[in-house]
Design goal:
Helix 3 links the parallel strand 4 (70-76) and strand 5 (104-109). By secondary structure, the chain is an alpha/beta fold. The chain is built from five helices and six strands, in the order E-H-H-E-E-E-H-E-H-E-H. The two termini are 20 Å apart. The protein has a six-stranded mixed sheet with strand order 2-3-1-4-5-6, sandwiched between helices. Guanosine-5'-diphosphate binds next to helix 1. This is GTP-binding protein. Interacts with Calmodulin. Belongs to the small GTPase superfamily. RGK family. One of its GO terms (molecular function) is GTP binding.
Length: 164
């Protein structure tokens, strides 16, 4: 049974080059997420999709804006500056949304690039703990854990919905 009401608006946030376009491309269902032609499909447009999470359909729209219902806060594990940027963005989000408990998942992308790793798993996890949000490492290149991130955000939105 599909959930009624407007779709969940999920924002992809993070420094340049961390993989936001690659995430959007996987979400949009482009055949090859690393193909730049395909990525443009999702470049600046909204993508809306109905996805199934835990046996229940959820309408999700990816929005390119600061305000959404939930955030995937991306950094690249190969780029420490993008990790620091994610922390800054987390603080900014908290100022925008002090009262509400907006679902956020801290996403360490490019975990396939093991030899170029600059941010350890434990650092990512510790940062998420401080910021009181979930944490996941992904590889858009390998299509590893990307859907888990989207599903995780829908689960958190449902928890919030159900507790209202
Ligand atoms: P954006 O600026 O956040 O939208 O980043 P992009 O999605 O454009 O990605 C920047 C570059 O990193 C592109 O060359 C992507 O192909 C590459 N990239 C994105 N995700 C991954 C990943 O998980 N692993 C690897 N190895 N490269 C990735």
């Amino acid at each position: 049974t599909a959930e009624t009401g407007s779709p969940y608006r999920v924002v992809l946030l993070g420094a340049n080059g961390v993989g936001k376009t690659a995430f959007a491309s996987i979400f949009a269902g482009a055949a090859d997420s690393m193909d730049s032609d395909e990525c443009e499909l999702c470049g600046d447009e909204m993508c809306e999709k109905v996805i199934e999470v835990d046996g229940e359909s959820a309408a999700v729209t990816l929005v390119h804006a600061l305000f959404g219902d939930a955030y995937l806060l991306l950094y690249s594990i190969t780029d420490r500056a993008s990790f620091l940027r994610a922390s800054e963005l987390r603080i900014i989000l908290r100022h925008f949304r002090p009262a509400q408990h907006t679902p956020i998942i801290l996403v360490g992308n490019k975990c396939d690039l093991v030899r170029r790793r600059e941010v350890s798993v434990s650092e990512g996890r510790a940062c998420a703990a401080v910021f009181d949000c979930k944490f996941i490492e992904t590889s858009a290149a390998m299509q590893h854990n990307v859907w888990e991130a989207f599903h995780g955000i829908v689960r958190q939105l449902r928890l919030r919905r159900d507790s209202k």
